[in-house]
Design brief:
Distance between the termini: 41 Å
Structural class: mainly alpha
Strand content: 5-15%
Strand order of the largest sheet: 5-6-7
Shape: globular
Largest sheet: 3 strands, antiparallel
Number of strands: 16
Helix content: 40-55%
Number of helices: 20
Oligomer: single chain
Length: 497
């Protein structure tokens, strides 16, 4: 295992003081800053100099650190170019060569080139990368897909799992496990022996998510990502740490001051939501207007369990190709059991839709969210269930610019009025799987048109969009709208290929 230390542990009180000062608008910039000297020397100098009457924190930072600039913010778009041509040019802007190790930096070095999302996100991200790869495949950039899969495999080998991103402050959590779908994509291009090649990594990825399953019992029903129910085991999102996030340190500290929760409980649920990729959404809250009511770790999410179903089937496929039929059968059985649990716990015959399950309160969440469409994406719904879901999407989620993420407006970025590229692809493909081609095309056309219009207005492809009022850019969340943008580029290319 690689020894990597997050910046809050490297720079101790200096880290805390920098974030508390609020001299910098975005805490992530501080956590991503590149030290210009050895970390121990910087910390020693800080402890000496801060006692001086004329000490200036901002000047000290600028003398000892370099901010990591975004290449996308420096890039000038030519809106006379068609959007898809623009994306093909942008791939090189978003590309990073293999990393070199820098002492004291939060960056986890990767051995192969990769694509970053863009904007403030100057590192590789786990679930973003799958949707980015959809576009890279259309652009026939197969080598970079291979490189990115190999980087994730390297992380599995050296760190033990695929972190949220290649930053030391992400080592407590992963993200929605799309690794097995990346292997599918690579196998499409290079043949089925890819499954055998990456079998050890698929196994280790599965072991990470299922760690502790065998220790669960009536007295101890939860451990890390696994939760024991009456009929079997399902999974939740969970971060192994329960402290403020390094990238949003002061924001978390200030939120805790408003909360009645124990600090460790609050931080744990915030971090778990970050592992989901939906940070933040009413999906994770008891009170949709109060982020302090977040209880992510109490929830069994639809999307996570669908993704693990696919991972189990992928392992079965890989073992079958490897002539290990007995082990393949075991994974097929696991997938079959998980499918039964998915139907039992997530389908609601009254609402005719799928909902996340609160295993603490022993009831479904009432929220209507696009996470339900993962069921259709992985072909787990009956035809009748799929039709009911399609009707709900058309009646409750469809807007002028595509589909809203949830049906609630809360100010959180993973709620209405925002729409996001990955969930558009999940929805579009899920509907296609069940031959709801007219609705699928409507969503695809509206989303594409919105992407195109914003590009021609601003020269940018954005992280998220306002799909309700298409005259406005998106808002909500903890930071400004980011441009680039990896998964937007990928999905737009995929649905227009």
């Amino acid at each position: 295992m690689t020894l990597l230390i997050p910046p809050e542990d490297v720079f101790e009180e200096l880290f805390v003081d920098l974030h508390a000062s609020k001299l910098w608008k975005d805490g992530k910039m501080l956590s991503d800053a590149i030290p210009l000297a050895e970390s121990k020397e910087i910390l020693f100098q800080y402890r000496v100099e801060k006692r001086k009457n004329d000490f200036d924190l901002k000047s000290f930072f600028e003398k000892n650190f370099q901010l990591n600039p975004s290449k996308t913010s420096e890039f000038k778009s030519d809106t006379s170019r068609p959007v898809l041509e623009h994306i093909n040019i942008l791939w090189d802007v978003l590309k990073r060569e293999k990393d070199t190790s820098i002492e004291g930096s939060s960056l986890i070095p990767l051995p192969f080139p990769y694509i970053v999302p863009g904007g403030r996100f100057n590192e590789i991200y786990y679930w973003d990368s799958y949707f980015t790869m959809l576009g890279l495949q259309v652009s026939r950039k197969i080598e970079i897909i291979q490189n990115m899969v190999d980087n994730f495999s390297h992380l599995i080998k050296t760190v033990g799992f695929i972190p949220n991103g290649n930053r030391s402050y992400f080592l407590g959590r992963s993200q929605p496990p799309f690794y097995s779908l990346m292997i599918d994509m690579l196998a499409e291009e290079k043949g089925k022996l890819i499954y055998i090649k990456y079998l050890p990594f698929l196994e280790k990825e599965y072991a990470f998510w299922m760690d502790g399953k065998l220790s669960l019992q009536e007295e101890k029903t939860t451990f890390k990502h696994v939760v024991l129910l009456e009929e079997g085991v399902l999974n939740r999102y969970q971060d192994k740490f329960n402290k403020p996030r390094a990238e949003m340190y002061q924001t978390d500290v200030e939120l805790y001051k408003k909360s009645s929760k124990n600090s460790k409980t609050l931080y744990s649920h915030l971090r778990a939501a970050c592992e989901s990729g939906w940070d933040f959404s009413s999906r994770w809250m008891k009170d949709s207007n109060d982020l302090t009511s977040i209880h992510t770790g109490d929830i069994l999410p639809i999307d996570l369990n669908c993704l693990l179903y696919h991972l189990e089937l992928t392992l079965a496929k890989a073992y079958k190709l490897n002539k290990s039929d007995n082990i393949a059968s075991l994974y097929e059985k696991k997938a079959f059991q998980r499918n039964a649990l998915i139907q039992n716990y997530f389908w609601n015959p009254n609402t005719q839709f799928y909902h996340d399950y609160d295993y603490v309160d022993k009831k479904q969440k009432s929220n209507f969210t696009l996470a339900a469409m993962f069921i259709l994406f992985f072909n787990l719904a009956t035809n009748e269930q799929a039709e009911a879901c399609a009707n709900c999407i058309e009646n409750e989620f469809l807007r002028d610019g595509g589909v809203i993420t949830t049906t609630l407006i809360t100010g959180q970025q993973w709620d209405a009025p925002n729409g996001w590229a990955p969930l558009h692809w999940i929805t579009i493909k899920g509907l296609r799987n069940y031959k709801f081609n007219k609705l699928s095309k409507t969503i695809s056309d509206r989303w594409s048109k919105l992407n195109y219009n914003v590009y021609h207005r601003t020269g940018k492809l954005l992280e998220k969009y306002n799909v309700e009022d298409i005259s406005l850019l998106s808002g909500g969340g903890e930071y400004e709208v980011q441009d680039g943008f990896g998964w937007t580029n990928g999905v737009l290319m995929k649905i227009n290929q």
